[in-house]
User: Which sequence fits this backbone?
């Protein structure tokens, strides 16, 4: 029991940078209180002391805002961050090292008895407000985006976003694209790599087009030289963001106000 408590406290320090001391965690973290109460209630539920288990679960809900049915099975090092509005149904199963944020529902879609709530593998993270409904399975390492509604199984290591939840293909790194993006002052990689962003996608397509165009121009110039032709050797305008606005039309910069190249907003 004390080993489990030590693990539960340890994960708070691992996953919440706001945690400062063991005493603070034990006395002010509703996620810890809800998990401790559930372990007691689940033990009573397993011994068929169902009414007493439900009473303990309801008291814990009053104090924490987190509703966990005593019949739910929860693994080790489970962490509920903030926690208000979390609902975990009777037949839900949660693996080890999982994290839920506030407003998450592990609910059912049927009134029939039997397995009707989700099963989460190990190391699953569910974002704030997400709803995972029905007897579905989320593979180990899965990630669920905030406010997503998941109704189908999720493979291991996959991210799900949107309503209804859809799988997100992981992005592959392109060193040339990243280097050119840095020169232009655009950071498409500041957001999570698993989260779709239409603006970032559009600009990445432009960067890929620029790469292809540069390659073609270089090959054409090389061929022209081999044929004895003359190629304009003048230096191309720089793409360095810090040199943007150095032209003749740089009146805003001289007046103390300039445009932010990344956002288009003017700043003083």
Assistant:
């Amino acid at each position: 029991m004390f080993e489990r408590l030590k693990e539960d406290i340890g994960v708070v320090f691992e996953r919440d940078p706001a945690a400062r001391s063991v005493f603070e965690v034990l006395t002010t973290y509703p996620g810890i209180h809800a998990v401790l109460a559930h372990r007691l209630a689940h033990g009573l539920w397993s011994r068929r002391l169902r009414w007493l288990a439900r009473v303990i679960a309801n008291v814990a809900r009053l104090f924490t805002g987190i509703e966990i049915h005593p019949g739910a099975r929860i693994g080790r090092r489970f962490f509920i961050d903030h926690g208000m509005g979390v609902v975990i149904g009777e037949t839900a199963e949660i693996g080890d090292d999982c994290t839920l944020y506030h407003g998450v529902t592990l609910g059912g879609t049927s009134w029939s008895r039997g397995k009707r709530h989700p099963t989460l593998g190990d190391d699953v993270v569910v974002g704030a407000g997400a709803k995972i409904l029905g007897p579905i399975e989320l593979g180990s390492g899965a990630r669920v985006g905030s406010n997503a509604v998941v109704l189908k199984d999720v493979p291991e290591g996959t991210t799900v976003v949107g309503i209804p939840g859809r799988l997100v293909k992981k992005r592959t790194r392109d060193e040339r694209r990243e280097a050119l993006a840095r020169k232009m002052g655009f950071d498409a990689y500041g957001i999570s790599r698993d989260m779709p962003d239409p603006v970032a996608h559009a600009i990445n397509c432009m960067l890929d087009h620029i790469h292809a165009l540069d390659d073609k121009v270089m090959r054409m110039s090389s061929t022209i030289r081999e044929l004895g032709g003359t190629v304009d050797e003048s230096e191309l305008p720089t793409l360095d963001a810090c040199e943007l606005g150095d032209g003749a039309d740089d009146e805003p910069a001289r007046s103390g106000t300039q445009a932010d190249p990344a956002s288009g907003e003017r700043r003083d």
Remarks:
- Confidence is low (pLDDT under 50) at residues 187-194, 241-268.
- The chain has two domains: 2-168, 175-267.
